[in-house]
Amino acid sequence: xxxxxxxxxxxxxxxxxxxxxxxxxxxxxxxxxxxxxxxxxxxxxxxxxxxxxxxxxxxxxxxxxxxxxxxxxxxxxxxxxxxxxxxxxxxxxxxxxxxxxxxxxxxxxxxxxxxxxxxxxxxxxxxxxxxxxxxxxxxxxxxxxxxxxxxxxxxxxxxxxxxxxxxxxxxxxxxxxxxxxxxxxxxxxxxxxxxxxxxxxxxxxxxxxxxxxxxxxxxxxxxxxxxxxxxxxxxxxxxxxxxxxxxxxxxxxxxxxxxxxxxxxxxxxxxxxxxxxxxxxxxxxxxxxxxxxxxxxxxxxxxxxxxxxxxxxxxxxxxxxxxxxxxxxxxxxxxxxxxxxxxxxxxxxxxxxxxxxxxxxxxxxxxxxxxxxxxxxxxxxxxxxxxxxxxxxxxxxxxxxxxxxxxxxxxxxxxxxxxxxxxxxxxxxxxxxxxxxxxxxxxxxxxxxxxxxxxxxxxxxxxxxxxxxxxxxxxxxxxxxxxxxxxxxxxxxxx
Length: 495
Description:
By secondary structure, the protein is mainly alpha-helical. About 60% of the residues lie in helices and about 5% in strands. It has helices at about 30-45, 55-65, 80-90, 95-115, 125-135, 140-145, 150-170, 175-190, 190-205, 210-235, 240-250, 260-265, 280-305, 310-325, 335-355, 360-410, 425-430, 445-450; strands at about 415-420, 435, 455-460, 475-480, 485. The protein has a 5-stranded mixed β-sheet.
């Protein structure tokens, strides 16, 4: 998004320097931001293998628009924004490599645009540092090329808050108004409740600015409109969908999940149940430094009377993090991506102050050296955790692929249906539909499954040692990868 011609520069200057006057600036490329975004996209392709198979949630989202597999059951908390985002590729190609490359390039471009809207408020050096800090997190690199919504909520949050500040400072900046709308719509389209939490501080600041308030609300409604309509069409109403979504998440209420998030920092993509010990302090040190550096950035901004461009993203980051730290009883590192993206701005502001504020060559050299060592250590930790996460994720997805291959050997081919253990992702890999009679993905009944078994290729999956459901106990038991497959008899085999 291009800056308005009258954008006000509100980045924090060195202590004691008078505020810069308003300057008219033409829109032009920002090479440092471009370099960060390009490096981010390239790092995804190098460090997160493009042929990494789709994860469980990805198979659900991609199946909604895929022309190659039936759509998986779409549970109440999910929103279709990410399915629409991947549709340009997934609707005609089943290539995971092509999808990963598309998302990596798109995520890099989106990061550049989201950071660029801030250039009237923070200097390009601070913005480039903020982008690099956010982009270098293992969780950002891992989820950038994945068909998951959380990274895109983070991008929407960065764009929305930055454009909000621009529109508030210059009502004639039309691009900023559209940016507020688009950012709010992107967040709500990906995860409606996340979008609401992020904009709460913006709504509070808009009480006396009706136009900003209207644009924010209209953006949220536009993004969440499909989710609300679907609630009445498929879930019995909005209240019922919200209730079902809360139940799937273990009940929204007081849950101190801070420790759970801490335990997930070692590369656990989902911590549910979240038992075990926390990773090494070396791995979690950055997480404890994050609020301290953000607070430093806020203090510096207040002292230099340039507070709002630093305090507002900090407030929105806290609002985005609260539900995942205090209101649900499990954790996934990706939940905090919007908070990390917003916190990167005050953190970068604080780090810039550390390396520029000291007087004297020796003091400044020491400060720069300490920050450089800290950043280098941070990057090393992120790389190690990322490598571990990619390796473990690839192993589980390879298991699903092997099971799918074994099922095809047994004659379970399209058109076909799977149920039971890990049926959702394995069905995607096999090219089948999936159906469950219980759990979060319950979408059918035993009677309906029994009728299905008489007219299509059907198998029930179970781990070794587990008994199959009663209706499948007389079926042929076969080995399928590391699982047992109970294949319905007397059914014409798929093609």
